[in-house]
# Entry
Amino acid sequence: MRNNFLSMEALEDRLRYWQSKLRLMDWQVEIMFERGYNLGADIGRIHIFEDKRRALIRMTEANDWDPANLLPYDMEQVVVHELLHIHFYPLTRDAGSNVTAEEQAIEAISWALVSLDRRADEVENYYLQELERRPYGLLPRPAVVNCYAGRGEGGTHDNT
Ligand SMILES: [Zn+2]
# Structure
């Protein structure tokens, strides 16, 4: 795992992508970079205004990330992590702000989602490259067809 530092523009792009995947498009979510000392021990924080369906994600600036951290700073994963807090919020809002079990669940799910999403991209890119290399007579690999079908992008590869 490596650091994944993104520009604000790229980050907002990923934010909209994950809002859509997580079915949070009816939320108005903003994102801003913050000096590390304003976030204490956290690398990111979300402020949820449930009644307005609004949220603000504050994230540590790349320059303030401490390389001594055990985990890399993957800005996309932090966005997914903070968005998942919106889903968990009704379950845990009365339990206080720092619920260890919630944090552990969200951390595990966010890393899993980001890595699966990148793997799907790799499979798709591999298939597209192969198509460019050999445009005729390329049989779809079963794994690729399943992947496409599962992602709702067709799955009707009729190469026979
Ligand atoms: Zn969290």
Summary: The pocket of zinc ion is lined by residues 81, 85, 103, 106 (CB under 6 Å).
